Amino acid sequence: MKTTKNEILNTALSVFSQKGYEGALLRDISDSLGITKAALYKHFKSKEALWNTLIDYVEQYYSEHINSLSNIPIPDNWDKLKEISLKQIEFTLHDETVKRVRKLLTIEQYRNERMSALATKHFITDIESRFTKAFEKMIEKGVLKCTNPELLAFQYTAPITMLIHLCDRESEKEAEIMKKIEAHIEQFTREYKTK
Amino acid sequence: MKTTKNEILNTALSVFSQKGYEGALLRDISDSLGITKAALYKHFKSKEALWNTLIDYVEQYYSEHINSLSNIPIPDNWDKLKEISLKQIEFTLHDETVKRVRKLLTIEQYRNERMSALATKHFITDIESRFTKAFEKMIEKGVLKCTNPELLAFQYTAPITMLIHLCDRESEKEAEIMKKIEAHIEQFTREYKTK
DNA sequence: AATAAAAGTTACTTAGAGGTAACTTTTTTG
DNA sequence: CAAAAAAGTTACCTCTAAGTAACTTTTATT
Known about the structure:
By secondary structure, chain A is mainly alpha-helical. Chain A folds into two domains: 1-65, Orthogonal Bundle (Arc Repressor Mutant, subunit A); 66-195, Tetracycline Repressor, domain 2. Chain A is built from nine helices and no strands. In chain A, helix 1 runs parallel beside helix 6 (96-108). The N and C termini of chain A lie far apart (59 Å). The A-B interface holds A 18-23, 103, 106-110, 116, 119-120, 123-124, 147-148, 151-152, 154-155, 158-159, 161-162, 166, 168-170, 180, 183-184, 187-188, 191-192 and B 18-23, 103, 106-110, 116, 119-120, 123-124, 147-148, 151-152, 154-155, 158-159, 161-163, 166, 168-170, 180, 183-184, 187-188, 191-192.
């Protein structure tokens, strides 16, 4: 029973992330599931209810995803920082669900307070706090010039986030974009590494 | 005659940027203009036609805006860079049309090739190229450590762009966000300034 | 001032999306 | 296995947004 609901939510995520709330039709979702539109109403009492449940689902998926990241050791040197960054970017760019969540947040971020808060959390706060920890550790270890680790984390992650969004729009340029990301990481390392 | 059409386009920009293409109703636009929906059809043969004209209009407005920027002298030292950056950010954050264009591009960037290209141009390419020129000049003058000016321009502008988007979502945090922007600029200056 | 074009109105059609009711099939479970 | 709950179907209703036609008012133009 939970499986059916989950299948619906996955399909809904796919459709909503492509067409947005207003553009998405319940028929798109039901067709894509191979059931009739009316069958959806056995699980959700309205389009709005489905939407709200989807946001719950996204929030939950996302926090699980973030929690799983906190199991990964925090990098404490430049090589590990690069390695973990690239691995994370790779995942983020190719995992279908994560991609859909990102698109959905992007196109629906002005719909309501909840979407807006989720977008900020997803695109800025959480990433920043993860890398702040890394930079704090690196300062402690003396491999990073002593500065404000939070600001540095933002300066490190914001360009990457921008390029990930660019890749969502123009996926054919992925190789080029990955090169730019690497160049950014290398320049950042060169500049802030202690000698 | 051109004025009426322009008024319609301005109103359409306002409505579409708040509700997106699918969510926006022709009634929203006509009501907001104080005319009937049918009157709109004297100027545009369909919603889609109005939309396409709006994108033309946005493209044109935008390129004029960019051209007017090219009259401003390119900064060639750190103080001027900061000054011009902040002035530009101030304008960008408060000019209603620019704000609407930004929101529209954000929420409709996946609709078609045209919107996607415009988003990349608006959010990345054009800003980058402007600041690349500034950094090239500053390297020439010897006030900026010799590095890749294009990469640097991206690293300088991307965090600012991210914070502008944040401000669009959470305008009540503007003061805080402006502080963060200044901190970013100062940190960047401190790091790349030749001594 | 006369008249033609532009801009607007009212009243309508049409299509399609959300949503419901009544019935059937499938799945669970005592 | 029987029955009840879940999941699905068909056929419908309703509402509303896009779009049109016929008519009126406003605005330019000679």
